[in-house]
Amino acid sequence: MCYAIPGRVIEVKDRIAVLDYFGEKKSVLNEFTTIKKGDYVYAQGGMIVDKIREKEAVETLKLWKKQFFELKKIDERLAQPIETSSSESVLEILQKANLNKELDKNELLELLRLRDEPSLKLLFQTANNIRQKQHGNACCVHGIIEFSNYCKNNCLYCGIRKDRLLKRYRMDVSEIVNVARRAVKKLGFKALVLQSGEDYWYDEEKLCEIVEKVRKLNVLIFLSVGVRSKKTFERLFDAGARAVLLRFETSNKKIFRELRPKTSFDERIGLIKFLKKTGYIIATGFLIGLPGESNEDVINNILLAKSLNADMYSFGPFIPVEGTPLEGVKPVSEELVLKIISITRLVDRNSKILVTSALETLGKNARKNGLLAGANSLMINVTPQGYKKLYELYPGRPDKDKKVEENIKETVDLLYSLGRAPTDLGL
Ligand code: 5AD
Ligand code: SF4
Known about the structure:
Strand content: 15-25%
Number of strands: 15
Oligomer: single chain
Bound molecules: 5'-deoxyadenosine, iron/sulfur cluster
Number of domains: 3
Strand order of the largest sheet: 6-7-8-9-10-12-14-15
Helix content: 40-55%
Distance between the termini: 25 Å
Number of helices: 15
Order of helices and strands: EEEEEHHHHEHEHEHEHHEEHEEHEHHEHH
Shape: globular
C-alpha cells in the first residue's frame, strides 16, 4: 500500500535533517546516528521513523513520481481562491487572515456565527487555500489501535465511562504488538496511535514494554492513554514514544468540573505543558457541542490549544450516547465543525488539523469536507474487528463494520481525489 512516500536526505545538521520529496524540502528531526546525506527514509510527524534500502525507495518513488505531480495540480486547483459575495466585514477579516495577521476574538466570533452559504464557502475556501500554501498537498495518515475500553473515569459524555453497561476488553501486550506489527509491516503505517480508556491495568511497566516493542517496528508512536504521572511519561519517552494525544476537552473550567468528575483541568493542562517540554509532539483539542458551552468558549478552546503549542489539533463533535447522562443532548451540525476547522486554520496556519472519525458520523461527505475546510490529517482504525465494535466512545462510527483494507482503500481514494499525498508535513 503506497500511502507513505520515502524522502531523500539532502542535508544532516545536528538533529535536523532536510528531506527532499520530488523537489519539495521538509526539515525533520533525526534521532538516528547512522543517517547521512543520500539515504532514503520515512518521516512522520516531522520525525524520521525509518531508514529504507535505496533499491526499495527508488522503486516506490518511481511508482509515485507521475502521480505526485498530478496530485499537486488537483490540490492547487481545488484550493484556489474563489470570489463570492459576503459582507464587507467578513471580507476584511478573511483578507487579514490571508495576510497572516492575527485575528482578535471578536473577529473569530464573527466567523463562528456565519450562517449564509456564500460566506461559509468563502471561509472554508480561505482556510483550504492557506492550508495549501503552507503545507502543500501533504496529508498525515496515522493508524489507531484501541487496545482497551476499560476506563476508571466517568465523564458524563463518554460511551466507555465506567458506569456504562458495556462488554469490556483488554488486549494483552503481545496482542497489541502483533496488531501493530501487521499495521506497520503489512498495511504500511508509519505512525500509530495507541489508545485506551484511562486503564491502570496497564501500569508503567506494561506501557513501557508495549512502547519498546512497538518502537522496534520503526514507527512513530502516539500515546493516547489519558493522564499518567510525569515520571511515567518520561519513561515512556525513553522507551520510544514521541507523541501524545491528550485533549483538554473544554477550556471552560466549570463545564470541565461538571462533566469530568474526579479529574482536574489544571492537572491536565499542566501535564500537556510538561509533555511539550519533554519533547513530545502534542496533539490536543476539545469536544464541540458540550452542553453549556458558548461561542466564546469555542473560540477559547481554539486559542487554548494554540497557546499550548499544539502540533496537531484534534477536535470533534460530541455525539450523544445512549445510557449516559447526556444522552438527550441535541447533536451539533457538520457545518459547525467545519467552521471550527476553518477558523483553527486561520488561527494557526502551521499546525496539523485532524479530521476525526466523530466528524465522519455527521455526514457521508464530512471527512472530505473537513479536508477541504483546512484539515490535513486523518486516522485509520486498525483495531481488530471484534474489539473495534466494543470501543464505543460514541455510536454511529462509519468504519465500524468495515475491514481495515476497505477503510484504507476508501481513504486513499478520497485523498487522491482531493489531490493529497501522504508525504510528511515536516517540522
Ligand atoms: N462523542 C464524541 N467524542 C467523544 N469522546 C468521548 N466521548 C465522546 C462522545 N460522546 C472523545 C473525547 C476523548 C476521546 C478519546 O474521545 O474527546 O478525548
Ligand atoms: Fe475515560 Fe476518556 Fe471516556 Fe473520560 S472521555 S470516560 S477519561 S475514555
